[in-house]
Design a protein that fits this description.
single chain, Arc Repressor Mutant, subunit A, Endonuclease, Chain A, two-stranded antiparallel sheet, 2 domains, 10 strands, about 50% helix, alpha+beta
Length: about 280
């Protein structure tokens, strides 16, 4: 039982099955040669050499040479802390390059200039992917939203906050039309109940109220650059459609600004926002 737990933990540190066997073999039998170790493990000697070199590269195995014989022993278990630190540094580098990678891949995947493309997304993970695509695609630009509160309810507050933070970082202006009802009256300090991000409220966000008899809102529509996104939240059928088309985006943008002029002004936040 203990061995199984150790094997599981070692795999969590990135060791494969043979590396786990060899490392545990060294831990049990101490300093030993490849010949001796091969007598205790069901691994061929040629493979043992390769696995030992791999563990040595990870700093988990030490070697001693005596009379032309190489002895292997396990390193101090504290070495695993170094593996954790290396993994943390790698994760930090990956996070730093993720957005640039996604942006470049989106450019490659966008097809020829002027070509209309349609993409379908399913489930919460699909909608989250759409949100990140939008935040990258709308960098230093604007997003026009005809929306409901459903995205917040479906995808969760933590995710919503991460999107707002990215909007601030990417210098995006957000215009949102909501259905009339009881819109939140945000005080002058920008302290809103739906977000802790005051920078988002003060500089990047403005919303207006649209009477239901003019337009009944049931799903969400996003417009940015040459893209349109439709987000659907029907129970059991959470999905999204993204259309890349300059002509369609321009047409829906005109529709949005028409409704924007007709809508009731709620606040005048958003220093990036044009009137």
């Amino acid at each position: 039982m203990v061995d199984m737990q150790l094997e599981s933990m070692l795999k969590d540190f990135g060791l494969d099955e043979k590396e786990v066997q060899v490392y545990l073999g060294l831990s049990k039998h101490g300093t030993t040669t490849v010949l001796e170790l091969s007598r205790h493990l069901p691994i061929k000697r040629a493979t043992l050499y390769r696995v030992l070199e791999s563990l040595k590269d990870k700093g988990l195995v030490e070697t001693q040479v005596d009379d032309k014989t190489t002895y292997y022993s396990p390193s101090d278990p504290q070495q695993f802390e170094s593996l954790v630190l290396e993994q943390e540094e790698k994760t930090t580098r990956l996070k730093a390059s993720l957005r640039e990678l996604a942006s470049n891949l989106n450019i490659i995947a966008s097809g020829k200039t002027g070509e209309t493309t349609v993409r379908f997304f399913r489930g919460k993970a699909g909608l989250k992917q759409m949100e990140w695509r939008m935040c990258e695609g709308a960098k230093n630009s604007e997003i026009c939203i005809i929306g409901t509160s459903q995205w917040y309810e479906v995808l969760g507050r933590d995710f919503a906050e991460s999107i707002r933070e990215t909007i601030v970082q990417n210098n995006i202006a957000v215009y949102e039309l909501i259905e009339n009802g009881e819109p939140e009256k945000i005080p002058p300090n920008g302290n809103a109940t739906f977000t802790h991000n005051q920078a988002y409220i003060r500089r990047h966000f403005r919303h207006r109220e649209l009477p239901r008899h003019i337009l009944r809102l049931t799903q969400d529509l996003y417009i940015y650059r040459d893209f349109i996104q439709f987000h659907g939240y029907r129970e059991g059928d959470v999905m999204g459609i993204e259309i890349q088309s300059k002509d369609f985006a321009e047409m829906f943008r005109q529709i949005f600004w028409h409704y924007w002029k007709e809508a009731k002004i709620i606040d005048r936040f958003g220093s990036l926002i044009k009137t």
